[in-house]
Amino acid sequence: MKKGAKKMIELLIIVLVCVTMGGFGQIYMKIGLNRLGGIRLNEILTPKIFNTIFETHIFVGLMLYACATLLWFVALSKGEVSLVYPLISIGYIFTAFLSKLYFNENITMLRWFGILLIVGGVFLVAKG
To answer: Is 0.90 topped by the overall pTM?
Structure first.
């Protein structure tokens, strides 16, 4: 395997791990917010935000995001930002599947088509 191909595969694996952690982070935060009954904009700078942040699921989601961010530093170090950053849109696909699985969200054909367009765009960015 060529050195460039190996580097690209390694980069894709790192991005996929980041995306996976981010997707599960979103799911955990949503579960926590559902349990708390949500939070309103005017509650962001009130003591309620601390209860929100330290709700178990939300806290796990935030920690997943923090770990993904640290790993993201590695991805940015290994590749060009014009390549690496668009790859994170794979998270839209993953999160849509998780939303359907965990919350039985209605994902319309139009949304799936939009996700398919994203997949096509990610493919073109990775090939370019």
So the answer is: no
